[in-house]
Amino acid sequence: MGAILKLDELSKAFGAVTVADALSYEVQEGDALGVIGPNGAGKTSMFNLITGTLPSNSGKVLFAGQDVTKWNAARRSHAGIARSFQVPQPFSGMTVFENAMIAATQSAGLHGHEAERFCLRVLEQTELLPKANVLAGSLTLLERKRLELTRALCAKPKLLLLDEIAGGLTEAECTSLVQTIKDIHASGVTIIWIEHVVHALLEVVDRLIVIDFGKQIAEGEPHAIMNSAEVKEIYLGIEADA
Amino acid sequence: MTLQDYNVTRSSNAARVAAILGALILITLVAAPWWAGRADMRLMGELFLYLALASLWNLMAGYAGLVSVGQQAFVGFGGYMLFALTMFAGLHPIAAIAGAGVLGALISVPVAVLIFRLRGAYFAIGTWVIAEVFRLGFAQISSLGGGSGSSLPVAIVKSLASKRAMRESISYWLALGAAVIVISAVYLFLRSRKGLALTAIRDNELAAGSLGIDIWRTKFIVYVVTSALTAMIGALIFLQKLRISPDAAFSVNDWTAFVIFIVVIGGIGTIEGPIIGTLVFFALRETLADLGTIYLIVLGVVAIVMMLKAPKGIWGLIRSRFDLQLFPLGYRVITPGKTDKS
After folding, report:
1. B211: which chain A residues are within 8 Å (Cβ-Cβ)?
2. How confident is the model at residue B341 (pLDDT cuts 50, 70, 90)?
3. Can you give the residue range of the structural domain that contains A68?
4. Complex ipTM, two decimals?
5. Nearest CA distance, B47 vs chain A (angstrom)
6. Pair A165, A53 in one domain
7. Are A19 and A127 part of one and the same domain?
8. Residue A18 belongs to a domain with what CATH number?
9. A103 to chain B: which residues are within 8 Å by CB?
10. Closest Cα partner for B318 from B276, B263, B283?
11. B215 chain-A contacts, CB cut-off 8 A
12. DSSP 3-state assignment of B219?
């Protein structure tokens, strides 16, 4: 299997603040990559650059072998990149089912009955089926996070970007969400997951990268990375020799 | 209970009742020339045209987020095209209305490319400036009466129908037809795939973009279609008035302020809102118009109170109590064992 995503010296700065500093890495098809780093390190900005919500200053984004750097978010979504937002962005005036239908019809390009059945299947998988007719604006935090995941899945992604989807959840909620994500990964979807809830992350990912000040500072096997002195110092704020 | 037992419906009992009532009301309205007086028909004709303008503005502002305060540019443009196409090109007035729509679409393309660079308040002001440019431009055309305007020649008026009563009926039916066509078009569009995309844009542009919706293109299509239909309504308005001048044609008060009032009062971002708003606006106007300026003060107070107390308008208030939708746009999942309660 080849690389589904390749970042090549991808950079972005807002004035003096650099949010992406020559990011370069590859993600192989079927992989699950975890991303960690302190708040404000540029993790979400990296997702914005990959999905096309944010234009880059320099460098390239290659998706499934194609240079998509100049594509807008809609076109990248059609190509198979889907994401969840850290702060949930529901279509609040529409029901949960309609939210799912947007992704199925606009991104995955499904029609009519086929789209409806597909959305029902995904809603069952993400455990939101009982809430199908509820307005998205009146959901709880966990339900909103599940809706983010539902919509991303209804887009039939090849690459799924998850942005702190476990943040703010209780232990029990987190466990069931992790199981859902494991199932999605097992079905062949490539995943990049930004997460502060590290133990949840480590249950799914097989590789970890660490980002700080927009720079990729470490990459490798998850447990080795978590135990490295560099990560302890920069990410956890613990002195390496303390 | 398996997934196969779940069903999805796009209709509801409330909507079926509304459709039957709507059809009955429509039949009654079509027959108005046989039961209504001349003054009433003229008033209803005006009401239908405002309803059409409000539904179009609502599609553009309430769904696509394009808050224009310059739609009078297209009302006036359409009106002037009616005069120009009938007087200089010898077109039948009804053909000229269609022509005004085509030309309205064409002129809206460069306007859109220009003003779509602006956001929010700047966009609103930009549309107003464009409307003023249109007004000043048409005031320069001496063959259309320049700044003082012109009247539609008698021969052209008579080409619609030789008898006055027939002319008034045709004029009424055209207005009714315009309102029905606009509301049907808005309804069918919003129910379609593209309409689903537009509703998503209404709720959240960031998420819409990430889910494959091309925001610029969707807004552009809505702007051009809305402008074309607005120009056709403008042509109809001035076919009823029989006289046009730059100030009347490009009046921000008549063609935008009142229209915004209607949509805000009724409920922005819903099909039902402009219908309710139009009825409220005409009820207020007919009861208060004799009071002169006090009428406008009352309108202003009503608008301010509504915006503070019920920002989703009258239809928003109704919807928050009863789970109603007269125009079924949404999807409803029917759980096995439960009956559809709406």
Report:
1. 77, 82, 102-103, 106-107, 151, 155
2. very low
3. 1-79+160-169+181-242
4. 0.89
5. 29
6. yes
7. no
8. 3.40.50.300
9. 211-212
10. B276
11. 74
12. helix
